[in-house]
Amino acid sequence: MSPSDFLVIPFDEWVTAFVRGWLVPNFRPFFRAVQVPITQVLNGLDAFFAFVPMLLTTAAFALLALKFAGRGMAIFTIVGFVFIDLIGLWPQTMATLAMIITSVLFCAVIGIPLGILAARNEMTWKVLRPTLDVMQTIPSFVYLVPIVMLFGVGMAPGIIATVIFALPPIVRLTNLGIRNVRGDLIEAAEAFGSTPLQMLFEVQLPLAMRTIMAGLNQTLMLALSMVVIAALIGAGGLGLTVNTGLGRLDVGQATAGGVGIVILAIVLDRITQGFGVQNKVPSISLRQTLVSMFRPRASTPVLNGKAA
Amino acid sequence: MSAKLKVKKVFKIFGNRPKEALALLAEGKSKETIFQTTSQTVGVQDASFEVDEGQIFVIMGLSGSGKSTMVRMLNGLIRPTSGEILIDGVDVASCSGAKLRDIRRNKIAMVFQHFALFPHRTILENAAYGLKVKGVPAAERNAKALAALEQVGLASWAQSKPSDLSGGMQQRVGLARGLATDPEVLLMDEPFGALDPLIRREMQDELLALQATMKKTIIFITHDLSEALLLGDKIAIMKDGRVVQIGTAQEIVSNPADDYVAAFVADIDRGRVFTADTVSSEPAVMQLNSDTACDAVKTMEDHNLNAVYVMDGEEIAGVVTYQQAATADRESGEAEVHLSDVMQTEYPTADGDTQLADLYGAASGGLPIAITDADNRLVGVVAPEAVFAQLSVPSENAEGEDAAEAVAPENTELVLDDAR
After folding, report:
1. Is the pLDDT of residue B147 over 70?
2. May I ask the CATH class of domain A14-277?
3. CB distance from A189 to chain B under 8 Å?
4. ipTM of the predicted structure?
5. Whether residues B263 and B292 fall in one domain
6. A304: nearest CB among B106, B130, B164
7. What is the pTM of this model?
8. How many other CB atoms are found less than 10 A from the CB of residue B124?
9. Which residues does chain B have within 8 Å of residue A192's beta carbon, measured at their own beta carbons?
10. Which residue of B has its CA nearest to A181?
11. Bridge-partner residues for B133, per DSSP?
């Protein structure tokens, strides 16, 4: 005895009817048009990374790592990228990199304004919050099917799937960052006659930047984790290598692809983590601390002379 | 002097049903009752006061008394539920957002309790913020901001970040940021509350010194009565959102409106509130050339004095004590004793604005203190006893009378409320 003895809801049929019977025939041109900017950016980046010689790309990333993540990370970047090249996965890695950057770019372009809107308008946040929850909890395989129906297969649909999956953290953290700006600073900005836009650009965004950068880092990591899944609907790169290995039960190829993704993930993660910390007050280095400990009359290392 | 700022019958209710709360307030219900029945919080009730141009007006109250709400209503950070707030005749309570922004940019600046400096900007950029928002070109605003920093003695820190500065210095930057736009009205929300006592004292003196040249209209919020008494040309005391008493420091200390104010005033160093003027009396003087010791003795007996000042025309020549005059008079027998033979030429003087606390030394000599004006003429005399009489808290009896007197206007106010 159960309710289904009396009533059966043909939920799956309804969804099918909705997507196939209404959404696809009516909105296909719209969904096709949406792809255009994505394809443009992706093709540009793809061509760029394919054109730039491997050594130059590696040097550029090593420099970025040196600036934002320290010397150890720079060395790791060089070793890792050379290793990827040596195992013959350089072109795929660059394709994946172009895809990741495109996804993160679109996440930022969509997510940061949404986050700002959510932070300034309670109603927007009330609507957005459950939407983001759904986006984060839905298994990504579920929306792969409608995406293929609406957008077809290929790189661009792969990126769209990635954007859906990776968007929530940047929206959430932009919202959080702006809401967490100290109340008295907002009051001060207001008391001096700031317009809402001045408030946003002079006070809220600069102060929320660290949190927003943390959101960007999270988004990037989620985008990387979608690489393999997006490859199922035709996005190439390292994901394809892994999938092919999986299909052929070729343990070596799958592992090689996996290692490539991990190296890329570590490098990108450390560099973007460094972005957020840049604005921090310079801290006292380990060497300075040690020197001061052995100095007679134990004077503390003072950077800018904190006078009373 | 004209009133720069007028606050008329201002109410602020926090909550979603302010009308209900206003109606209950009109019935004379208390803040607590209203919160219990309607869950509306009464921020400020029926506040009215006027601030003259160039005055330091202190609003004093404990936390929850509505003083911070009050000051935020003056620049529209909080909009009052009802009432008028007029700055130069423009109602801040009801004007449009654009007009309000204009007032904030040009007329009124604010200094915050926890400094509220922008941590991502340099000291100079912080000081220049108000000008930047106004759209002043970079070169001009930096020059003005630097001048403001110079005023507070921090010009050399212009390129540092706020986190490099101590609390007192940060608040000076806060003050410079307020002054940079050259506002007519400066709101200071417990500006020295977060500083340690020594620095606070220093900042208070500095504010007074700055004010002596700037002559801004300053609304100063504090929870510290001694700070209020030190700085305020006029002081409003708030309790439970109501303005309990408005007056000068001396009026409040000598005549507290109710037990609440009296309890505050009890701990106050009265020697720092009252000046020599408040205890000086009309001097009985002798003339050096025409009067004798005998006349002096008679005068002192008539006026019940211990000593009397001797004038040489308009100038003070010296002081004669009763003991000296009487002894000399007795010993000389019939002969007339000239005053110059018995008077002391060393005598204590002070001007009328001297705080009583600074008269202790002079008073301990036992001689009356000569109060002189700017031209060094004798305008009054302070008897040593009078100094200490003023310092002692009035007896129970007197206090009761004062309180009854002061409560009277409040009662009429309540009647008005009922009528409405």
Report:
1. yes
2. mainly alpha
3. yes
4. 0.72
5. no
6. B164
7. 0.76
8. 22
9. 104-105, 109-110, 129-130, 133, 177, 181
10. B118
11. none
